[in-house]
Known about the structure:
The protein is an alpha/beta fold. The protein is about 30% helix and about 20% strand. The protein has six helices and ten strands, in the order ββααβαβββαβββαβα. The strands form three sheets. It has a six-stranded parallel beta sheet with strand order 7-4-1-8-9-10. Strands 2-3 form a two-stranded antiparallel ribbon. The protein has a two-stranded antiparallel ribbon with strand order 5-6.
Amino acid sequence: MKKKRLLVDVDDTLINNLWNEGLNGFLGTNFKREEIKTYSVDKYITTDEERSRYLDYIKDKSFYDGCRIIEDAVRVMEKLYEKYDLYICSACVLNIGKGYAYTNSYQQKFDILRKYFPFISPERFIFTQNKNIIKADIIIDDSLYNFYGDEELKLMYNCFMNDDVDEAEIKNLNIRRVNSWKEIEDILL
Length: 189
């Protein structure tokens, strides 16, 4: 029997990265992760000169050094990897507006996935900004923008980035919110 294809996001689904620390260091602020509702920094960095300086500031920094793996993610992913045709599918370009983009996270994300999820072959890592172009049966993600495909089951991992998403839109897209990897385990296994 053919296994169902499962796409799993990385940031704020498997791993809590530390990209806010780069923003804080650059701006001299102390934003907590949950205070920033988007990966876009346009709200905080508004001029081309600032964007250029910010790229220089973060170019050698890692958003994953010292990151936290979300509770039960590794244990449940090992089980899912056995049952499903599982792929990690994640964005790696941080668009900071007006043609400026941070692209160093490809290697950083690859390395952190190999470290914590060594049972998943790197051939199953897909790095793309548009996950809707990939055919899957099930998707687990935290971003509403990744649920416009035709997956039969859409699980939105609840986090600060999506806590203000309109519940009517979630219902309209047939998305089910999940709050933990234990809950995902109960649904999929």
